[in-house]
Specification:
The protein has 154 residues and is an all-alpha fold. It contains seven helices and two strands; from the N terminus they run ααββααααα. Belongs to the NusB family.
Length: 154
């Protein structure tokens, strides 16, 4: 599996882990252990889970947890007034937080790549409308955090 595929799998696993932590209240160390030993790269109930870049999975999950309040504020500022992040579906919240973390802290990854990857993750869980909302919010965040990447090229 190519490194890009492993990173895509790490993003999907990070979103699933963030969701699971929110719903179950499990801690980060327990979640790391569970995903690394049970989910990532294994077959579960007939579904084969792809091998993921573990260090990248750790980085996303740890980064979101360490910077969750500032990330949430950025997302809240981007969402439509009267529709705060707390009203967004928990899986969508996990996608936005992970994407927000990468846009804010992982300058080594182009913003357009981050947006596309998380829109693809959204497509695994939701329909076209929800994936479009993820695209719009992350695009707005990217333009705020990385305006230089969106300047017209001459």
């Amino acid at each position: 599996m190519a490194n890009g595929d492993q990173r895509s799998a790490a993003r999907l696993a990070a979103v699933q882990a963030l969701y699971q932590m929110e719903v179950t209240g499990k801690g980060v160390n327990e979640t790391f252990a569970e995903f690394e030993s049970f989910w990532i790269g294994n077959e579960i109930e007939g579904d084969q889970y792809k091998t993921a870049e573990i260090a990248f999975f750790h980085d996303i999950l740890s980064g979101v947890l360490a910077g969750q309040h500032p990330i949430d504020r950025l997302i809240d500022e981007t969402l439509v007034k009267g529709w705060p992040l707390t009203r967004v579906d928990s899986v969508m919240r996990a996608i936005l937080r992970a994407g927000g973390y990468e846009l804010k802290k992982r300058m080594d990854i182009p913003a357009r790549v981050v947006i596309k990857e998380y829109v693809d993750v959204a497509g695994a869980f939701f329909g076209r409308d929800e994936a479009g909302m993820i695209n719009a919010v992350l695009d707005s965040l990217a333009r705020a955090c990385r305006a230089s990447e969106f300047e017209p090229r001459m």
